[in-house]
Amino acid sequence: MSDIGAYQGATEAPHEAGFGDYVQLLKPRVMSLVVFTALVGLLVAPVGLHPVEGFAAILFIALGAGASGALNMWWDADIDQVMKRTQRRPVPAGKVQAGEALAVGLGLSGISVVMLGLATNLMAAALLAFTIFFYAVVYSMWLKRSTPQNIVIGGAAGAFPPMIGWVAVTGSVSLEAFLMFALIFMWTPPHFWALALFMKEDYHAAGVPMLTVTHGRKATRAHILAYTLLLVPVALGVAMTSIGGPFTLAVAVVLNAWFVIGAFRIWRRDEVMAEADKYAVEKAFFRVSLLYLFLHFAAFLVELALKSAGLGGW
User: Fold this and answer.
1) With contact defined as beta carbons under 8 Å apart, do 312 and 245 qualify?
2) pTM of the prediction?
3) What is the DSSP letter of 28?
4) Whether residues 186 and 304 fall in one domain
5) What's the domain range around 110?
6) In this structure, is the dihedral angle defined by the CA atoms of residues 302, 305, 309 and 313, taken in order, positive or negative?
7) Residues 20 and 127 in one domain
8) What would the 3-class secondary structure string for 181-233 be?
9) Alpha-carbon separation of residue 187 from 256, 260, 293, 306, 312 (angstroms)
10) What pLDDT, on the 0 to 100 scale, is given for residue 201?
């Protein structure tokens, strides 16, 4: 980071950080999505895992996600201070020193990877280690500031948790695990580009080459529609695997029709329309995108319950 040294010198914490500040350092909102998707991956796997081992696996995956968040906040301290959306994070707000964030991130990284390996298997631990590295180094340190494809490639980091959960149980990667990964991977660009549409000035001020900054909002709207259409066959495909069934397929059809309609509405808009209603359509699509992913993974759990009752599955 070009000015991290200057930043660190200017952000000595004015008071001792509290417990809540360190919790926020771990990005609890992001962590909650990681925990949920990892739990689904673990539960829908074809073999069982002892409840204690399962709890340990989810705990250490969550710690790994928190470690990634802390490392990201350490590295992005300078741009977080510029962006309105991130100014209140612990490091730019002066509640936690940048060096402390780095120490927490590195410490939790080591603990989470080693303990997941001991609790489950080495492949799951290696996948968690790669995920932390990918988010902290490949995405945060390289892609985010160098290419408008940052969120496309970097989205892989957020797509790994269900695969890690699956591998923690089975010790291997399967088609189902890959498709759960692909579902999140393809969902990530339209989700974040919708946010970027009504937060463009933040990214512009911070010098982050988000697609809205480098190619403009019109191109971003077209990309949202394109990736949403590419997402549909992935969502329908995972519903046709062993973790899916009639219920999951029905949910996928409804959710993807809803999502495509929202993306089409965004594609049809221009800046006059968007400014007139203060980007209401874009903000609504962003909120729907969160619900979209949650309901998809919740459907896998419902299908699992139906199968247990002899009512679901193919």
Assistant:
1) yes
2) 0.92
3) H
4) yes
5) 1-173
6) positive
7) yes
8) HHHHHHHHHHHHHHHHHHCHHHHHHHCCCCHHHHCHHHHHHHHHHHHHHHHHH
9) 11, 12, 8, 26, 26
10) 86
